[in-house]
Records
---
Amino acid sequence: MGSQLNPVALERTASSRLGSLDAYRGFVMVCLAANGFGIAATAKNFPDSPVWQSLKYQFDHVPWVGCAFWDLIQPSFMFMVGVSLPYSYARRLEHGDSFLRLFGHALVRSVVLVLLGIFLSSSEKMTNFTFMNVLSQIGLGYMFLFLLWNRGRVVQMTVAAVILVAYWALFAFTPLPGPDFDFAKVGVTSDWPFLSGFEAHWQKCANIAATFDLWFLNLFPRPDEFIANKGGYQTLNFVPSLVTMLFGLMAGEWIRESKDRLRTLGGLVISGAVLFVVGAALGWLGVCPLVKRIWTPSWTLYSTGLTLLMLSGFYAVIDVAGLKRWAYPLTVAGMNSIALYVMSQLLRNWTADSLQRHFGQNLFQFCGMAYEPLVKANLVLLVFWLFVWWLYRQRIFFRI
């Protein structure tokens, strides 16, 4: 994170970074910037291949209940925000910043993240006031996360438990929609795998968070009345996803304060395994389904467990074993993650068009038409990576 109060700063790289965090962040950003490396789109050209179809499943979001690798991109991003926070603000304290100044920086960062999320979600015609974008979700919860920094494990764990239980109860005790509820109106077709019984409280576009958005999002100017998000994503997701960031904060404080890296690694692995098992059990027992799109409490625990295990893998190899050179391409991407993210959102099509303009319209087809999405995604990624590599070489880092 940056060390200045202005929203987006160009600054010299800071010392005492957590190498595994940079590599993990870079891994996630590379996957995101490459749009899943074009795997899901390429797999459509091989409908009879079990290998390609297995890869397609992992590089696409599950429709509602369950988890694929691609569903872990956003939890990883949010978890790492928590991990990095104690490092960011500890450096600011070392530079003499007061709590009031730190508070002001966190507030500005929150607002900028929300606004940047809205900007990236908007079309050319008008502003799209939506808050489901990952940056807006982080921004909505960031001030609460900052206020929980350095509050101690007991307070942090208590807050996490209260949020998850209260959010579960909010869904569980809200009456189900009546038999005349028009699912077609909110974009849920008759062939949708409807949840039944108690789990119906977490039905797509027919839950308390969807009802909230029906009121909240229509407070903003928009060309048409908001009825439902076709993907089922909701603004209130930031409440349970705050817990994802809070677990990341606890992990970051734990790693930063540790003097025994091997013991810390063991603790991270055990914690990740416990969260994973508890979240999976809640889903399997029917207490709360695993739904990423509305960030159910069981999903919060389950996905955080997996992100902890992924961080543990990078931590074991880079910070414990000291094997760092292999991660250089990921570190380059991870240290300019905001630049890479914005480019992937705004410049993917422009970059692809420019490559074809200068290198020929058949550039992406040199491996055959079937592999065009794969080639296109990876060449665009290469252009993005070369740019952030240049920034890295110049010691220029964009931060919020």
Note: Residues 261-284 form the longest helix (24 residues).
---
Amino acid sequence: MPVSDASWEGFLRQNEGLTKPSPYHARFQSFDLLATLVAVVGGDGKVLFANSALEDALGTSRRTIEGSDFSQCFTEPLLLRNALEGAGSNEFAALRYDAWLVRLAHEPVPVHVIVAQTEKPGEIIVELLPLEAQARQDREERLVDQAQANKELIRNLAHEIKNPLGGIRGAAQLLQMEVDSRELTEYTQVIIHEADRLQTLVDRLLAPHRRPHVVGDVNIHEVCERVRSLILAEFPRGLKVARDYDISIPEFRGDREQLIQAVLNIAHNACQALAEGIAAGDAELTFRTQIARQVTFGKQRYRLALELHVIDNGPGVPDSIKDRIFFPLVSGREGGSGLGLTLAQTFVQQHHGLIECESVLGRTDFKILIPLP
């Protein structure tokens, strides 16, 4: 049964006099760098140390948490008590289970609990992973691993194609000089033209890995305005491009041209998906910027990060490719190269960032996350 706010407030009042700094702070202060919720408890279930992430999650100070019975922070206290008892009697080195964590003035949140022994008797580490955050972390890890695999695949494939391609084109040129028939010459010109087209594709595949990373001060709104002007030049009618900027976002170090290309690729894909809306005159594209605080992505926690949203009111990403849109050569448009989003993800990851996508009918939101200093 969920713990009521009244019971929770009573629990806080019971422990509000515990104001002495914990002697465990020096030993466990590194836990404050973690995004996961961590408590070090004694065999009796009393909290010896709580990290800052746990403070934030519970909505109260660590001085209030420390010295309290940690099992009372859960809707089913007995589960943690049994786990601590098993850890104290050396029945296991680590135990995992799912539970509900109680928060002040908020609904309980589902968490994955990991109970593990330390090297010192009488101390047990309890780590809590919010299940929503765990699912997000798993998704981000898949995106990072996928991008790395894509990069290796692209580089190897491009090099394997490039070498024989030069030979094919050269042989066609030599053959063209030897034949007298106009019809046969047309065939050799087709071979040369198609070889050149493949060469252009290979060059695009290799572009992010060839071009040096030119770092300078970047204003994200200048990037957005440049992309906006390019989009409006290509689609002057039937498309509304809205701006919702947080002007307090500071400049950061990055490659301006790479970021322009990344945002342009996303925006251009959106406009192509909005073709029917543009023809009807009701298509809308929105650039939105904001600051995200205490965020975790790419297995790291950042105090501040830039969020840039590129939102359109189109039909959404087809379900058949929703999980593969960042794969190379995957496109939801007839005749598309399937490289735009792959290159965008590569450029953003070179800034230690990540692109995520949420899409439903009538709203597709590509979110670019980049850590800020």
Note: Residues 175 and 188 are 7 Å apart (CA to CA).
